[in-house]
Amino acid sequence: MASINVTELIITGLFQDPEIQKVCFVLFLPVYLATVLGNGLIVVTISVSKTLHSPMYVFLSSLSLVEIFYSSTVVPKFITDLLAKVKTISLKGCLVQIFFFHFLGVAEILLLVVMAYDRYVAICKPLHYMNIMSRQVCHMLVAGSWLGGLIHSIIQILITIPLPFCGPNVIDHYFCDLQPLFKLACTDTFLEGVIVMANSGLISIISLFILVSSYAIILVSLRNHSAEGRRKALSTCASHIMVVTLFFGPAIFLYLRPSSTFTEDKLVAVFYTVITPMLNPIIYTLRNAEVKNAVRKLWSKKDSETE
After folding, report:
1. Quick one: signal sequence residues (predicted)?
2. Is 132 within a domain?
């Protein structure tokens, strides 16, 4: 393994203007808190509710848990850096951030695929649903999503660790990611960039193809359902499709193309690291009467206990 001379990296951040950074701090701190509280509320509600134990809610709870961890790998440091004059991170800390960012990001992608499969079975094979989506199968699918993210991230980090970093040490981003870090390596990283593009980009493309195919089959099959059944199924699927669109659009834009210096990359990254994790609980709860009722019962129970 090549020796590493650089031990600390300087992060340029999202904006250079101190006043704009203060405005961003005021905007993004509540967004992060809302992300943690909103997703945490979904996890707690599904865990304690007696009515939300179907496979769909097991997957939703897992997705919300991933969102909390995923957002927390980047956003807390990003927010604190907005008030710092010099934004630094150790090289080891940078590699750790990259590892967990990709681990949790791919785990989320695979969970979205699992949720689409769950809706496909529920709508297209309702009589066999409980046999196909047994508790054991649900747990295996959730574990498989986490394992898939772990394997993906290990591959990414193993091609990064051997790279020599001997200067410069300024990473042109507001958090550590592979392409900005590759630009600092003291060697040609074309091959590593291709591997990253193939690994991250193809996972996104294949998963998106599976998702689109699943929802297309679901929409076609709804023609044989009652009006009430179509309405309920469409409401649930619409929530999933919104989340999929919000997550996959920026991810494909950033990872399914060669390394570039596009200035809009940072703004696109803000969307899927800061904004999307907050929107997911809002999208799912606003369009799901069962979750909303369970949240009301949870809070009314807490209120009665405190009186």
Report:
1. none
2. yes
Within a domain: residue 306? no
Tell me which amino acid residue 256 is: L
What confidence tens digit (pLDDT) does each residue in 256-270 have?
Answer: 655 555 566 788 888
Pick from 143, 180, 158, 35: nearest CA to 99: 158
Number of domains in the chain: 1
User: Who's near 42: CB < 8 A, 6+ residues apart?
Assistant: 60, 61, 64, 281, 284, 285, 291
Tell me the residue range of the domain where 112 lies: 8-300
Distance CA(75)–CA(81), nearest Å, equals 10
Tokens 């993210």 identify what position? 149
**Predicted TM-score of the model (pTM):** 0.88
Between 123 and 99, the higher pLDDT residue: 99
119 φ/ψ angles, rounded to the nearest 5 degrees: -65, -35
Residue 307 forms part of a structural domain:
no
Backbone angles phi, psi at 171, to 5 degrees: -100, 120
Inter-residue contact 273 to 75 (CB < 8 Å): yes
Report in angstroms the alpha-carbon separations of 94 from 38, 89, 161, 183.
28, 6, 11, 14
Provide the 8-state DSSP code for 9: E
Query: For the chain, what percentages of helix, strand and coil (3-state, to nearest 5) are there?
Result: 75, 5, 20
pLDDT mean over 158-179: 90
In this structure, is residue 1 part of a structural domain?
no
CATH number of the domain enclosing 289: 1.20.1070.10
How far apart CA 262 and CA 272 sit, in angstroms, is: 17
